[in-house]
Amino acid sequence: MMKALIDRLRKETVLSKEEYVLLLSHITPELSEYLFQQARTVREQWYGKDVYIRGLIEFTNCCKNDCYYCGIRCSNHQAQRYRLSEEEILSCCESGYALGFRTFVLQGGEDPFFTCQRMTSLIRRIRQQFPDCALTLSVGEKSREEYQAYFDAGADRYLLRHETANDSHYRKLHPETMSPENRKRCLRDLKEIGFQTGCGFMVGSPGQTVENLAEDLLFVKKLQPHMVGIGPFIAQHDTPFRDQPNGTLEITLFLLGLLRLTLPSVLLPSTTALGTIHSRGRELGILAGANVVMPNLSPSSVRKKYLLYDNKICTGDEAAECRSCLERRMEAIGYHVVVSRGDYPTIKTK
Ligand code: SAM
Ligand code: FES
Question: Is the residue at 96 inside a domain?
């Protein structure tokens, strides 16, 4: 019965909310393995055994928001704040380029210091110096005009997790200053402007139900993003959610498999959070249908300060070590890290 649902999902690329709930409520190791086999077959039709790498530069941990789950929320006075200078960011890109990265992801808190003018000047410099690279931004909610300015300056991709598609669940994870409507408005604007757009959600965030996860799957089906970033929620000791249980490996992997069948050609990262809850989490994510990894290119001196959650991995390593470590890990499971921009299959490069 459950396997037949997975077969139908593979064929029709969507199920009803009730059917997704049914699958998510009947996860067994056997069913998971069946799902992952199907997901790998679909993934290999689009991407073969290639794994795309993105160089993640966590350029500021200052943030004006106060999301209850996040270790760099503005109310966390234990966080040691930093922001990288334009020169430091460019030097991360330079070392990344030498290591074979052709996508840079600039991620940070919503830091008012990085005004539209500062961001666009940074984007232009990166675009000028690395014309053959893709530039992804992940800096939160902005006005449509600001997103348009980033795009015109040369950014190609934008990651903004919707966090949860259910509005009342969203309100349990965020203070009143943030709204699910605005989050969704941002995603629509980003797509309309022409960014390769990524949404995503945490698995096992406080208050989340299997119904909510089914809603997330239907939300991504409708939005048709180019990328979907998911990872387990992991408690951070200085946040209001410090005592909440972490998301599980089992459910996160199962969702990766379902996402691969729901959006067959989507760019799907196997995230650092997955590598944090299990020592082979990133490999298992790839084997469940993911096709992207995002090693850290931030300077080692700031890595321990970008602590979104507890026990984050790779905070003591150099970029080169992370790159070669991931390459070895991927080779060990029969996949290969490739040097390319790694665009969504139907997108032409700028
Ligand atoms: N400020 C940008 C934004 O809001 O999109 C980007 C940075 S934000 C820290 C990146 C992502 O980290 C969030 O979208 C959230 O899903 C994830 N995150 C934050 N706290 C987390 C936690 N405790 N466990 C797992 N993921 C977390
Ligand atoms: Fe950073 Fe392995 S990915 S040490």
Answer: yes
Dihedrals phi, psi of 51, to nearest 5 degrees: -120, 125
Pocket of ligand 1 (CB under 6 A): 69-70, 107, 109-110, 138-140, 160-161, 163, 202, 231, 233-234, 236, 273, 308-309
Q: Work out whether the CA dihedral 276, 296, 294, 159 comes out positive or negative.
A: positive
CB 306 within 8 Å of CB 99: no
Mutate to test the pocket of ligand 2, among 58, 321, 323 (most ligand atoms within 8 A of CB): 321
pLDDT, tens digit (0-9, with 9 covering 90-100), for 181-229:
999 999 999 999 999 999 999 999 999 999 999 999 999 999 999 999 9
Domain count along the chain: 1
Distance 39 CA to ligand 1 centre (A): 26
Give the residues surrounding ligand 2 with Cβ less than 6 Å away.
295, 314, 317, 321-322, 325-326
Q: What is the pLDDT of residues 242-274, one digit of tens each?
A: 999 999 999 999 999 999 999 999 999 999 999
Give the position of tokens 């945490």.
202
Instruction: List, in order, residues 6 or more apart from 8 with CB less than 8 Å away.
Output: 15
Nearest-CA residue for atom 4 of ligand 2: 322
Phi, psi values for residue 159, rounded to 5°:
-110, 125
Gap from CA of 295 to ligand 2 centroid (Å): 7
Residue tagged 């990262």 (tokens): 269
Sequence-separated (6 or more) residues with CB below 8 Å from residue 328: none
The Cα 165–Cα 5 span in angstroms is 23
Structural domain range at position 292? 2-338
For residue 165, what is the domain's CATH number?
Answer: 3.20.20.70
Question: Is there a contact between 247 and 234 (Cβ–Cβ < 8 Å)?
Answer: yes
